[in-house]
Amino acid sequence: MADLAGQLPITFHRAIDMCCDWRQALEDIISLGCHRVLTSGQDSSALEGLPTIKQMIQQSRGRITVMPAGGINERNVKRILEGCGAKEFHASARSLCQSAMLYKNSSVAMGASLSPDEFSHKVTDDKKVMNLVTIATQVSSS
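^ Copper homeostasis protein cutC homolog, sequence as received from the core. Prediction below:
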């Protein structure tokens, strides 16, 4: 795939979080020519995996961008960026949006009871994005 990408930057998605030896995996990813690696630090969220993300950034020595991901929001992005020294991060910045459907049969559920109902969907929230950018900019300039 790296050959097919040509000059396009390559991001290695969170598969590193499932590796038994992330240190070796990081070296392998770098040797493949990837430009960044998306990671939650082998934990459920970037905040929980912060110590490992910091170690990944230290090991990378600028050869690849380590991009924290997983559960990043306006409440924790500052702590994550300051805690590991990352220059980039990934966040969905989503909000729940109600459907514009005119008729809603609320007596029928189309999915699991723990998932959002059929009458709403998640969308990227531009206000959340702007707040995250503002916070990250403040961190990088301090």
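The two ends are 38 Å apart (CA to CA).
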